Every structure is written in structure tokens, then in C-alpha cells.
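User: I'm curious whether this sequence folds into something compact or stays loose and floppy. Could you predict its structure so I can see for myself?
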Amino acid sequence: MKIIGGPSSQALACRVAAQLNILPTVTNFERFPDNEHYVKILDDVAGDDIVIIQSTTTDSDLIALLQLIDACGAAKSIRVVIPYFGYARQDQIFKAGEAVSARAMAKTIQGVESVWTVNIHKKHTLDHFNCPAKDLDASPLIGKYLSELHLTRPLLVAPDKGVEQMVRKMAQGLDLECDVFDKTRLSGDTVVIQDKKMDIVGRDIILMDDMIATGGTMAESVKLLRSNGAGDIYVACVHPVLTRNAVLRLANAGVKDIIATDTLEKIQSQVSVAPIIADELRKV
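Assistant: Here's the prediction. I'll summarize afterward.
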């Protein structure tokens, strides 16, 4: 088996390879003068079982993934891990005339044996791939990390009902109490969080979401918790998108720390999803 890391997931690919006691395959990523991508795998992949690990955070990342798949055409098998699958939030038609972008992106992945994602926004997106696709859950890894922080009477909170099931599952695994806010979204980065009675005075709070993009939801939740007497407040997520000034917004709201995985490789990526990916590859 050869592990090939795309440009957006190089560190994660190395960690997966280390879990499997193999070396990652070296690949060159360059740009032509007209800014088009160029990829070259610096090893012979003919007859090998190939695993490509590449998050599709940007349009360019998707292009690089498609090029890597094509470059492995002589391989025995090609499997793809997309830790963060871009465009996943446009998973249905919200307004007339829109594209279902998640479906369009999934259908570009051709000629592979299987696909794995990590905490994809909606599971039904997996049905759009042209091969078997499976979603992996990174929340237990985050839970393990949180359990080692020695927090004071910790309470796990979901910022909205969309991630309530994931948060309640994590809370159950950690034997923690949990609760959920009611959220109304006014725009892409403006939300209103409804105040509610919670037993939070003096307690450390962990706000958990599948992803943090602009930080608007989390910042409003943090302010509400602080105004009601919470202790230290942490925010945790699987995918640290953290666009624009999200980190500053969260710090200004009073967050003690941001905890995330390396599905997107950021400075906040303190938890690696390599173990759950490696476990799946051992089953192949």
C-alpha cells in the first residue's frame, strides 16, 4: 500500500502512513506560469494499492485530487480519503435555480474503489459518489482529548440542533452532561442564540460543532454563556474552517482555547484523525 498526500493534507497523510508503519509517497505540486496545477508522483505506482488523502477545501484542492487520481491510473486499486469535503453544505436546493453542489462535486470523483469522508455535513451526500462511500466519526477522538483537560464540572453544549445527536453521543461516551442552544440564522455569518436556563455557574463549558466557519454561532454562544456565569469556555470542532476573522471573534468573545482536528491543517488542529483512517485501511 502507498499513501499519497495531496497538497492540503500532507501532514495528515504522513500521520496515517506512520500509523501503518510505512513511508508516505513523495509528490511534487507546482504551478504553470498560467497558474494551472501540475502534480507528479515521484514513485512508480503501477500494480500498487494506492490511498490518496486530500481535503477539498478549495476549488484548487479538488483539481489536485482529480489529477492525483488520474496520475495513479496504472495502480492496482485507488482509494480516496477526503477528510474535509468541500461544498458539502449546499446539499439540497434551497432556492429555485441552485445547483446541489455537494452532488456535483461528488460526481467528479471517478475511477476509484471507495471513498471515505470524516463527519461530512449530511450523510445522504455519500449516495452521490460513484463508488462505495463511508463517513468516519472523529468525535470520539475529540472526546478523548477533552477528557484529559481536567475541567471543572464540564458541560458539553451543542450550539444548535443540527449537531445535537453528535454532541449527545460524545457526552454519553464521556459520561458528561450536555445541552443544546436554539439558534436562528439571519445570514451567512449572523445568528441569534435564544437564551435558556442551564446549570452553568462556575462550570467549564465545551461548545462542540462539526465545523466552525465564520465563528458567528460560537461567538454568540460564548457571550451568552459568559453572561450567565460560566467558567472557562472551550470551543471544539472536527473541521476548523475558521475563515476571515473567526479566530479573533472567538478570542474577543472570551474563548479559552479552540480545539480541532487535522481534517484541515491549522494551528488549532490538536487532534489527529489519522487513527480512524488507519483503522479503516487495515480492513482493506
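Summary: Residues 2 and 22 are 8 Å apart (CA to CA). The chain has two domains: 2-137+272-282, 139-262.
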